[in-house]
Amino acid sequence: MKTAAPCYHHLDVELSPDRIGQVKRVLAAHLRSWDLEMLVEPFCQCLDALLHGIDAHAADKNATIEMWWNGQHLITAVQDSERDIRPHYAPAGCLARIAALSNGWGCCATGTGGKIIWFSQRARAGDHALLAPTAPAPSLRETRPLPRALPLTADATARERETVTAGRHQEAMAPA
Question: What torsion, rounded to 10 degrees, do the Cα atoms 128, 129, 131, 134 define?
C-alpha cells in the first residue's frame, strides 16, 4: 500500500439480484484505488452474503454501505430498514459466513427501526504501509561535546542546600 491515509466511501443503493454484482464491483474498485487488493476477495465474499440476505428477507430493498480504511483495518457497515436479524443468524445465514471470513463483526439497531451489520478485515502485516514512524537517519552534523562533570566539594554541597532552603522559605512567604 502506498499510504496509510484514512479513506472513506459511502454508497446508497436499492438492491436487486443483478445490482448486487454491480455494487461489489464498484466497491472492489474503491479498494483497489486505496491499494487494498489483498482485501478485495474476502470483502466481496462478506458483502455478497450480506447483500443477498438483505435482498432475500427485507421488504424495503434500500441499503446504505459505508467503508472506512484507517491504515490497519477495513471496516464495512451495511444499514437496511429491517430490524429483524433472525434470517441472518440462520444456519445458512450470512453472519456465519461473515464470522468465518472477517476479523470481527457486529450488529446493532438504528433509531429509525432498521439495523446495521458491520464487519472488519485487518490487512496482513506485509501488505500495508507501516504506521509506526521509522528511526531518524544519522546526522552528518558535528555534535557538541557534553559538559565535563565537575566534582562536588563539601563547600559546593553546602551552598546548594542553602539555595534550596532559601527558595522554600520564599515560596512559603509568598502571598497566595
Answer: 140
